[in-house]
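Teaching assistant here, posting this on the class forum so everyone can see the example we discussed in section. The complex has two components, and the goal was to see what a joint structure prediction looks like when all of them are supplied at once.
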Amino acid sequence: DTGVSQDPRHKITKRGQNVTFRCDPISEHNRLYWYRQTLGQGPEFLTYFQNEAQLEKSRLLSDRFSAERPKGSFSTLEIQRTEQGDSAMYLCASSLEREGNIQYFGAGTRLSVL
Amino acid sequence: AQRVTQPEKLLSVFKGAPVELKCNYSYSGSPELFWYVQYSRQRLQLLLRHISRESIKGFTADLNKGETSFHLKKPFAQEEDSAMYYCALGGDSWGKLQFGAGTQVVVTP
């Protein structure tokens, strides 16, 4: 297991297009998180899954954003009708509930909206 | 409201000098504090957490609830310590983290 995997690493899209990112957590990690990071800022929480259930969504996550985690394994984050303000690094992290709050991060997907 | 403040965006120190990265937080519940580090071209990784009370790579951090601080310290900085450091606050039962804006540490020989 090489850790949390995110795909693609980079995505360039035109404004108004839809994009989808994928995150594969560490095997057996039942918790999965999505964060967004813009230049000069720390990661900001977007949403969280425990197994397949999405338990919280940040106010940052407008209705153009949707995340899923079917079967409690990999997760996808979709952004519809992208805007230039969506340009950011999207980070995924996973954790094992019995290990407490230690989160392991993926390398991220960098989105550029032109 | 939950908040993490890292007042220094950039910290430049000489090799062998002490380094201290400041982190202050505001949280009404029982906080759980972390330091994460990101080396150049690498992913974000956990450096240490307050409940383990251990020293990692020579770094230590003490939670001071009275001053609501969790400063990161190392007595003798090394060039390989050059990285971006983020202080993070947890506390919810399911582990959402609130990050500070980060401090870039540059250690010069």
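For the discussion questions: Chain B has a mean pLDDT of 93. Chain B touches chain A through 23 residues (CB under 8 Å). Think about how each of these relates to the inputs above.
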